[in-house]
Amino acid sequence: MGQHFQWVRSFSQEAFLSVFIMKKWVVCPPGWRMFGCNCYLVSNESNKWRKGQKDCRNRGAHLVVVDSTEEQTFLSGLTEERTYLWIGLSDSAVEGEWKWVSGSPLTLSFWRAQQPDNGGDSGGLGEEDCAHITTGTNSSNWNDLSCNTNLQWICESGHIME
């Protein structure tokens, strides 16, 4: 009998917590945009990929990791005009082995035609080990670029309950 009571009490506590959490509002900080259960911020400044990564970390976020076609479509429409924005993808550890800032390997991609090309025949650009998205275009719009190029970036963070 004691076990049954404990199970009922535990179940009731979980149900209460679930209902309590569901009644809270999911919000993003001012200036961030919500998609799904995450918040996204386009930086106001331009800088190198690593500086963008550091800025996102300082905000409790990370450079965006694209997990779905729907998220890619959302990101492609973040700005009306064509804008190049760093995403959290690079092959700087091992050339040709693209990984997200989360450490997970690239499994879903939206590269432009003939990309990534590590600079191709450009010669003067050096290694192109970091990826950017081009907003205001179709959804197959990633390109690799030198990580030392100054671009804006997209931070991604989980939502905040209020």
Automatic annotation (TrEMBL):
UniProt xrefs under Gene3D superfamilies: Mannose-Binding Protein A, subunit A (3.10.100.10)
Q: Which GO terms describe its molecular function?
A: carbohydrate binding
Kindly indicate whether the keyword Protein biosynthesis belongs to this entry. no
Q: Name the Pfam families for this protein.
A: Lectin_C
Which InterPro entries does the record associate with it? C-type_lectin-like, C-type_lectin-like/link_sf, C-type_lectin/snaclec_domain, C-type_lectin_CS, CD209-like_CTLD, CTDL_fold
Keywords of this protein's UniProt record, alphabetized? Disulfide bond, Lectin
Keyword Disulfide bond carried by entry: yes
Q: Which residues form the C-type lectin domain?
A: 35-156
In which domain of life is the source organism classified?
Eukaryota
Recorded hits in PANTHER family, A to Z, give: MANNOSE, PHOSPHOLIPASE, LECTIN RECEPTOR RELATED
- What is the name of the protein in this document? C-type lectin domain-containing protein
